[in-house]
Design brief:
alpha/beta, Rossmann fold, 7-stranded parallel sheet, 8 helices, 7 strands
Length: 255
């Protein structure tokens, strides 16, 4: 693995029970990291952990709800007690979406998306950064944004606003944490099939979207591996406050 090695590192991945989070956990494990898998569905996390350990990796599943202060605080206490050290890599991946025209969206749906995608990202990053600073450990925080932070689309006002907030919050976090040796960056994926969007991507509207996309296809999970490892490892040691777009040129599509 060389430059991209994560041997001796410990990585916390939120939303690790499925989709991109599960994939990210596998990639970081294969690079040598001991992975801490966090999500609300403990049964799914145990399956992911078993799969990683079957392939020779080390995995520690923990139940965490990023919208709950008590849950996040308790999880970080559990990690510290079990591992005896803070995670020096965080992949802030938990996310959700509720789609509706902004004029029709309920207060409950708006709050659910913002609480998970924006406040949850802040909450977990805050605890991770404080743990790194307390232990005088250098590290990397990787927030998962989206190209919807850059380009508008119908019915996703809450999701897009949350991801635009993650983008700018990433830059502020990077500014404040640089003196402590903690880098903060973001990845903005284009369209990759996940539990959040697979219904839309398989629909007629999703098929029409493919025809408008620069590369005429959705992304494959493995096409995020290089960016993830760059930001997590010492290969990206002089990178902070950056959002890397991985979208097959989708945002280049003409209006």
């Amino acid at each position: 693995m060389g430059l991209f090695s994560l041997e001796g590192r410990t990585a916390l991945i939120t939303g690790a029970s499925s989709g991109l989070g599960r994939h990210f956990a596998g990639v970081l494990s294969e690079a040598g990291a001991h992975v801490v898998l966090a999500a609300r569905r403990m049964d799914r996390l145990e399956e992911v952990a078993a799969d990683i350990e079957k392939r020779g990796g080390k995995a520690f599943p923990v139940e965490m709800d990023v919208t709950s202060v008590d849950s996040v605080t308790g999880t970080f206490e559990e990690i510290a007690g079990a591992l005896g050290r803070p995670c020096d890599i965080l992949v802030n991946n938990s996310g959700m979406s509720r789609e509706d025209w902004f004029t029709s969206m309920s207060e409950e749906d708006w709050s659910a998306v913002i609480d998970t995608n924006l406040t949850g990202v802040w909450r977990v990053a805050k605890h991770a950064a404080n743990a790194m600073m307390a232990a005088n450990v250098k590290g990397s925080i990787i927030n998962i944004s989206s190209i919807t932070a850059l380009r508008p689309a119908h019915t996703i006002a809450a999701y897009a606003a949350s991801k635009a907030g993650v983008d700018h919050m990433t830059r502020i976090m990077a500014l404040e944490m640089a003196r402590y040796g903690v880098r903060v960056n973001a990845i903005a994926p284009g369209y990759f099939k996940t539990e959040i969007n697979d219904g839309f991507l398989d629909s007629e509207e999703g098929k029409k979207m493919i025809k408008r996309m620069t590369m005429r296809r959705f992304g494959e999970y493995d096409e995020l591996n290089g960016t993830l490892l760059l930001l997590a490892s010492e290969a990206g040691s002089y990178m902070t406050g950056t959002t890397i777009v991985v979208d097959g040129g989708h945002t280049l599509s003409p209006l």
